[in-house]
């Protein structure tokens, strides 16, 4: 089994398949070498049509390989590469490469190496939006994820031929950073910290069939869980939605499924003593109702629903927390954003309040992107402009890490 030590650097297989993003893999190779990794590039025959082998060979730890058939020093390259790799990263991963890997084909050195390895595999897909959105591509990725393959979802941005959309490969810097974390076992500023995150809109039952809920998709909470884990935290997610496949790269997040505000409260409060941080990203119902045991029938006419207030979980957390614990609240606003946010910050007593204007375009509920303002106890305002929910999570968690290091109370 491979095992990186200071004297023996981690061995990375850099797989490159045939897409225009292959030019970015040259930069990725350089960044991985800068980290001190031993990098073996494996190019598919199509990849060499985009970038010459010489370019990769000049930067890598050993010459590019692309043949299944070895030489005197390495007679069976796919088993040698597969068995000695600490991490295999495929960037770009084309739709064709993803399909071949999902089908278990081994018709070139890269797919054969993938099959001959037990190392963590990180795929960085890159393709046109139409291809990315094809059910066949998404199903192949789901299959691979179920088998433990890590997928770094592409960004929205400029694509080949002047098009713009989802499918742009992540930047080499970000990929290199993730590979580094995979090698080190997710060490980072939150290492040793336990973080509890809530996600999704709670569901209050009207009867056994119907619920009252809200538009929260849970994506921001899931993105926070993913990024907190990448930064080294032990993460528990208490969620009303199941988006496990939206966890891009990490799988070892404990997910507790709940439905109602009172179930969420119970699960969060019982765990409070065991965590360092609670981030309440969930959209918790403010009102609930007594559910009818039987389904309400249409011919009885429109029902009259009697609502009663739910307990405010954040207020309970702030009241019960111990010194040093960090509590983060969210605020969904649609009008008088800054004033409402300040009032909420003061009323809730949280360390950080993450405010989003959920009526703005591409922001908040049901969007992959978000734009937020982070307020702290001193009422300092940090604006985080429109970006992916994952990128927003990095900003929030950087603030959390800084509070923890100051021993917030
Ligand atoms: N929250 C909570 N328990 C509730 C309601 C909300 O813990 N019963 C938390 C949310 O998870 C979020 C914060 O409180 O972190 C603010 O939620 P938000 O819906 O913006 O505000 P509310 O307090 O519900 O006030 P309003 O609906 O009047 O804006």
How would you characterize this protein structure?
This protein starts with 10 loop residues before the first strand and ends with a helix. A hairpin with a 5-residue loop joins strand 9 and strand 10 (211-212). The strands form 5 sheets. Strands 12-11-8-13-16-17-18-19 form an 8-stranded mixed β-sheet, with helices on both faces. Strands 2-1-3-4-5 form a 5-stranded parallel β-sheet, sandwiched between helices. Helix 3 crosses helix 5 (109-115). The longest helix is centred in the C-terminal third of the chain and has 17 residues, at 389-405. The protein folds into 2 domains: 11-183, Rossmann fold, CATH 3.40.50; 194-406, Rossmann fold (3-Layer(aba) Sandwich), CATH 3.40.50. The radius of gyration is 24 Å and the shape is elongated. It is α/β, with parallel strands linked by helices and 409 residues long. The chain has helices at 22-34, 53-59, 77-84, 95-103, 109-115, 129-132, 135-146, 172-184, 219-230, 261-271, 313-320, 337-348, 389-405, and strands at 11-16, 38-43, 87-93, 121-125, 150-151, 155-158, 164-168, 194-199, 204-205, 211-212, 234-239, 254-257, 277-280, 287-289, 307-309, 326-333, 352-357, 369-376, 381-388. The chain binds cytidine-5'-triphosphate. Cytidine-5'-triphosphate (CTP) binds next to helix 11 and strand 16.
């Amino acid at each position: 089994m491979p095992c990186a030590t200071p004297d023996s650097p981690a061995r990375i297989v850099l797989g490159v398949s045939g897409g225009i993003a292959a030019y970015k893999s040259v930069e990725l190779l350089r960044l991985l070498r800068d980290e001190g990794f031993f990098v073996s590039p494996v190019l598919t025959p199509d990849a060499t049509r985009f970038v010459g082998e010489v370019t990769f060979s000049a930067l890598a730890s050993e010459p590019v390989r692309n043949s299944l058939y070895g030489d005197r020093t390495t007679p069976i390259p796919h088993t040698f590469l597969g068995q000695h790799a600490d991490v295999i990263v495929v960037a770009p991963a084309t739709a064709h490469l993803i399909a071949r890997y999902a089908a278990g084909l081994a018709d070139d050195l890269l797919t054969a190496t993938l099959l001959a390895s037990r190392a963590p595999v990180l795929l960085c897909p890159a393709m046109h939006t139409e291809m990315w959105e094809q059910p066949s591509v998404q199903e192949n990725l789901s299959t691979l994820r179920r088998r433990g393959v890590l997928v770094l979802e592409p960004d929205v941005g400029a694509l080949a031929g002047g098009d713009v959309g989802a499918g742009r490969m992540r930047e080499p810097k970000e990929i290199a950073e993730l590979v580094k974390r995979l090698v080190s076992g997710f060490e980072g500023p939150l290492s040793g910290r336990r973080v509890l995150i809530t996600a999704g809109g709670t569901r209050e039952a009207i009867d056994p069939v119907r619920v009252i809920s809200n538009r929260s998709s849970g994506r921001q909470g899931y993105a926070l869980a993913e990024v907190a884990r990448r930064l080294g935290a032990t993460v528990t997610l208490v969620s009303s939605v199941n988006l496990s496949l939206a966890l891009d790269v990490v799988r070892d997040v404990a997910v507790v499924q709940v439905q109602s505000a009172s179930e969420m409260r119970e699960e969060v409060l019982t765990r409070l003593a065991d965590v360092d941080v609670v981030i309440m990203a969930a959209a918790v119902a403010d009102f609930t109702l007594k559910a009818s045991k039987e389904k309400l029938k249409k011919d009885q006419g429109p029902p009259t629903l009697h609502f009663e207030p739910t307990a405010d979980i954040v207020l309970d957390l702030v009241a019960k927390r111990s010194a040093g614990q960090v509590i983060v609240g969210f605020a969904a606003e649609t009008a008088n954003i800054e004033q409402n946010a300040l009032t909420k910050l003061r009323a809730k007593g949280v360390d950080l309040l993450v405010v989003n204007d959920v009526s703005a375009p591409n922001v908040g509920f049901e969007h992959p992107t978000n734009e937020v303002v982070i307020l702290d106890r001193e009422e300092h305002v940090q604006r985080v402009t429109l970006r992916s929910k994952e990128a927003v999570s990095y900003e929030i968690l950087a603030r959390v890490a800084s509070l923890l290091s100051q021993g917030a109370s």
